[in-house]
Automatic annotation (TrEMBL):
Keywords: Membrane, Transmembrane, Transmembrane helix
Organism whose genome encodes this protein: Lysobacter niastensis
Superkingdom of origin organism: Bacteria
UniProt name for this protein: Membrane protein YczE
Transmembrane region(s): 28-46, 66-86, 120-144, 175-199
Length: 220
């Protein structure tokens, strides 16, 4: 297997090669749509009050041990995760920057648009919807091949370097992060468990159809 390409056809191109790889308008549209839907997913899970994603649990736990706000902790964790990209040789790109700058505002906007459900069945619908939308959003914006966000870059980097499926890698990362968050004192719920166990397989399913396979530029 080419170490620069994942089993699903995700090419590890440099930032400039990503922009020159063709179909740029379509890929930009997919990137923005994916990040928007990621914000919808975050809002659904948070409004369900049944537990956020494992990364949210980890961030909450870290704030209990640091004199920092949740937002600052999220930024610092993102930087630390980006450092883990170095041994994986994961390349950043426009999508990496867009994830960092847009995901927070998109989440805030959708939180203002969504009302918190009162009934338990509707809260469960929010959880299921949040997980499915997160998987779809990930496949859209990562599949645009403009560079993943810091946390999704771990997923694609490990998948490419090990040859393992997105499903196994994503699920493994979510479980490890969740365990660390709980040990730090973060609050988890049934929604967190559902997310950790289900988002990987569903992301794998959507990836099969939404990754845009690109030809790597020929060496000059």
């Amino acid at each position: 297997m080419n170490p620069n390409t994942s089993p699903l056809g995700l090419a590890n191109l440099g930032p400039l090669d990503q922009l020159r790889a063709g179909r740029l308008p379509e890929r930009l549209a997919r990137l923005l749509a994916g990040l928007w839907l990621y914000g919808v997913s975050n809002a659904l899970l948070m409004e369900s009050a049944l537990g956020g994603s494992p990364w949210v649990v980890f961030h909450q736990g870290a704030t209990l041990h640091l004199p920092l706000s949740l937002g600052v902790v999220m930024v610092l964790v993102a930087v630390a995760v980006l450092l883990l990209w170095i041994p994986l040789r994961q390349m950043p790109g426009l999508g990496t920057v867009a994830n960092t700058l847009l995901l927070g505002p998109f989440t805030d906007f959708n939180l203002r648009m969504l009302d918190a459900p009162e009934s338990l069945p509707l809260r469960c619908v929010y959880v299921v919807g949040g997980v499915v939308v997160c998987a779809l959003a990930t496949a859209l914006y990562v599949g645009a091949q403009l560079g993943p966000g810091p946390r999704d870059g771990l997923m694609t980097g490990f998948a490419r370097r090990t040859g393992r499926s997105i499903q196994r890698v994503r699920t493994g990362i979510e479980i490890v992060v969740l365990a660390m968050g709980v040990l730090l004192g973060g609050t988890a719920g049934v929604g967190t468990l559902v997310f950790a166990l289900c988002v990987g397989p569903i992301t794998q399913f959507f990836m099969r159809y939404l990754v845009l396979r690109l030809e790597e530029p020929a060496d000059e």
